[in-house]
Design brief:
- The protein contains 5 helices and 11 strands, in the order H-H-H-H-H-E-E-E-E-E-E-E-E-E-E-E.
- By secondary structure, it is of the alpha+beta class.
- It folds into 2 domains: 136 residues, no CATH class; 136 residues, no CATH class.
- A 5-stranded mixed sheet has the order 1-3-8-6-11, with no helix packed on it. It has a 4-stranded mixed sheet with strand order 2-9-10-5, with no helix packed on it. Strands 4-7 form a two-stranded antiparallel sheet.
- The chain starts with 5 loop residues before the first helix and ends with a strand.
């Protein structure tokens, strides 16, 4: 039977909880910062744990600290793979490089299982903390992504009226020196003007719904990022629920909000924001 004392149990529990906290921070916490900044914040914390492990005389605490660092580094690696879609080949190569690094480091342990002296480990922690602080300032000061919605002047419904029609392009630019995650603004669309000839006939199943409705979809994918000083363009498509629109052409206008007018030629109004108005749907 393995004899585990209270000190060992509490040290192991602290190591497990610390590892969970680091992994949760990496995978679930979002401060609106660049993924590079978030990763380096985690690295700075792990460097602090490393510095403590090199200054303590407790071999068990040193061993558990190494466990926290190794598991967390692997978690950081997989988060970077997912964030930047590095692919299977890069994942395998990265894991092999991590394994080689661990194998090489084992030959540098001294008699107390340390890699550095306590003083050098503290200097390393201080240097990385200063670098992360500088990067954090740059990330906050430089701002985030810039968005430009380029709306088509007119669109033609050439197929099914319920098919997706491209009505605009969203250009996302990154003027900062750090990669940034894409979070597109919410855009709404509504059918403005007189759409009486395109209204669907009365249907009990449509009670409570607008006779003509429109929906927007910004096709920005999932977990997209824009690299430093780069830009990406995403299509914005329209879903139009109306009758007798095949072959018709409609103007598209950029407005501040959904117009209230129901007279004049029909057109589509696109605007930024969200509302509960049933005449449109914002995404």
């Amino acid at each position: 039977m393995v004899d585990i004392d209270s000190e060992t149990l509490f040290n192991a529990a602290a190591a497990v909880l610390t590892t969970i906290a680091v992994l949760f921070f990496i995978l679930n916490v979002d401060f609106g910062l660049s993924p590079v900044t978030m990763t380096l914040l985690a690295v700075a914390f792990l460097t602090g744990i490393f510095a403590i492990s090199q200054r303590t005389a407790d071999r068990q605490l040193t061993l558990l600290s190494y466990g926290v660092i190794v598991v967390s580094v692997v978690g950081i690696f997989f988060d970077l793979v997912n964030t930047f879609s590095l692919g299977s080949e890069s994942t395998v190569l990265g894991l092999l490089l991590l394994a080689a690094a661990l194998f090489a480091l084992r030959t540098r342990f001294d008699g107390s299982n340390r890699l550095l002296s306590g003083k050098r480990a503290a200097y390393l922690f201080g240097a990385i903390s200063a670098l992360v602080a500088l990067l954090l300032v740059v990330d906050v000061v430089s701002g985030g992504l810039a968005h430009e919605l380029q709306v088509e002047n007119r669109i033609e419904i050439t197929d099914s009226p319920r098919g997706d029609v491209r009505v605009a392009s969203l250009v996302v630019s990154n003027p900062t020196p750090l990669p940034e995650r894409v979070e597109t603004p919410r855009y709404g669309v509504c059918a403005a003007g007189d759409w009486s000839e395109y209204r669907r006939p009365g249907d009990p199943s449509r009670e409570g719904r607008q006779p003509v409705s429109a929906h927007l979809n910004v096709q920005d994918g999932y977990n997209e990022h824009v690299m430093s000083f780069d830009s990406k363009t995403y299509p914005v498509t329209l879903y139009l629920d109306a009758a007798n629109t095949t072959g018709e052409t409609f103007p598209v206008e950029r407005t501040e909000s959904c117009p209230d007018d129901e007279t004049g030629s029909p057109y589509l109004a696109i605007f930024e924001g969200s509302t509960n108005d049933p005449r449109y749907y914002a995404v």
